[in-house]
Amino acid sequence: MTTLLRATTELVAQAWLRGVLGDIVATTLPRDNASWMASGFVTVATVGGSANPYVPLRSPVVSVDCWAVHPGSNRPPWNKATSLAERVQAACWDHAATPRLLTLPANYPQARVLSAYSTYEARRVPDDAASYARINLGLSVNWVEVAS
Description:
Elements: H1 9-21, E1 25-26, E2 41-51, E3 58-68, H2 78-92, E4 100-102, E5 111-124, E6 133-145
Parallel strand pairs: 1-2
Antiparallel strand pairs: 2-3, 3-6, 4-5, 5-6
């Protein structure tokens, strides 16, 4: 018996953001900040939204955190983190790139993002004890699972 895997909001958000930013997106920061010091990193978490009660359309809100670090410095690299957030915002306005079919990890069905837009302006999250720069924005990703 094979277990049926279903697409999830966090998988879809990660795949959509990887299409925008490359392979610097996950649900948690890597432990070794040297591995993402040059590029920055983006984490996602579902924070709200809804599923349509009549059709299989999902409309979640995802918290997107854009991170940057400069080891050995007390000054967070805000511009690098802000640049990542602005790339996400620009992708939301790229209407020619949506809808977009996404390939999820092995054994998961594909998903189609119908639209993506920011739900609140990118903002600084200050006072990180590790002197990381963290910019947060909200993203609504309207998507459907694609039957195989």
